[in-house]
Every structure is written in C-alpha cells, then in structure tokens.
Design brief:
Blueprint: E1 4-6, E2 18-20, E3 26-35, E4 38-43, H1 44-59, E5 65-69, E6 72-76, H2 77-81, E7 94-99, H3 104-108, E8 115-119, E9 122-123, H4 127-136, E10 139-146, E11 149-156, E12 158-162
Antiparallel strand pairs: 1-4, 2-3, 3-4, 5-12, 6-7, 7-8, 8-9, 8-10, 10-11
Organism: Cyprinus carpio (Common carp)
GO biological process, one term: programmed cell death
Domain PDZ: 59-148
Length: 163
C-alpha cells in the first residue's frame, strides 16, 4: 500500500485522526510514526475502497474473507530514503517498521528495521509486491538486508480474517 508521508506529529495512543489539507479536506488517516517529523497516513481513497468493499460483503451476506498474513508493518523504502541519510545501502525493497509478536515473521526471526529485498526469488520494489507474494504463496523465502548483513529467512504465512 502506498502511504502519504507527513510531518504531522503522531504519538502512540493518539494516532488515527484525519490528515487534512489546507482546504480542510480529509486526505488520509494518520497511522504510523517512524521518527520525529516522519509519519505516514493511509490515503483516504484506500479507506473509501475498504469501506465500500466491507459494505458490499455485508450487504451480500458474505463472510469475511481470510487473507494470508505474516505479521509485519512495512513501508516503501523509497518513502523513507528521502528523509533519512543513515538508511541501509539498498536500492529497492520494503522497510520492516514493526514485527508483530507471535506471528510467522516473529517466529522466523525478522526484526524491526530489516529491509526485505527479495521474496521467492523476485526483487521487491513495493509493499504491493510483498502483499501479492504473501497472498499467492503460503511458504515464503525471503532475502533480507539487516544493517550490513544479507540473511535468508523461510516462513509460512498464516490466515487472518480480513474485515
């Protein structure tokens, strides 16, 4: 998913409010703080699509779908490289912002600040590449950049109910 980068101050326990432009239009929902002055919001068009899909499923009486899940919060590497000079020397990949305890990613040994550069033999250029690979494959082979090391991880995606 693409995020909107903002310098809005987001602190734990008070994030989730609207991100508005100068005209007062809601353009996103504040979601994630990386460092002071670097935060991200989910674009409002993605929120609208999610709500429309959820409404359609409810209206049709469909159960919530199960999606594969590995347990990481990730950001597009290009979004962060522009602001952070001490980023790992990689040209593409996704930045692991948070590994959720008790998930496949946690069990496989992924840690915060890893950069996933290859998944199942294919270069990772975006968070969408990661999402597609996770939904298409139960077993995932990852090549990860951790500081100056290149490491390999194998993990099995689990199912999470998508609302």
């Amino acid at each position: 998913m693409e995020y909107i980068q903002t310098d809005a101050i987001i602190n734990y326990a008070n994030s989730g409010g609207p991100l508005v432009n100068l005209d007062g239009d809601v353009i996103g929902i504040n979601t994630l703080k990386v460092t002071a002055g670097i935060s991200f919001a989910i674009p409002s068009d993605r929120i609208c699509q999610f709500l429309a899909d959820s409404y359609d499923r409810q209206r049709k009486g469909l159960k919530n779908s199960k999606r594969r899940y590995i347990g990481v919060r990730m950001l597009q590497l290009s979004d962060l490289r522009e602001k952070e000079s001490n980023f790992p020397d990689v040209s593409s990949g996704v930045y692991v912002y948070e590994v959720i305890p008790g998930t496949a990613a946690f069990s496989a040994g992924l840690v915060n600040q890893d950069v996933i550069i290859i998944i199942n033999g294919h270069p990772v250029h975006s968070t969408e590449d990661m999402s597609q690979a996770v939904q298409s494959n139960k077993v995932l082979s990852l090549v990860v950049r951790r500081r100056k090391l290149i490491i390999r991880k194998l993990l099995t995606a689990s199912h999470q109910i998508a609302f």
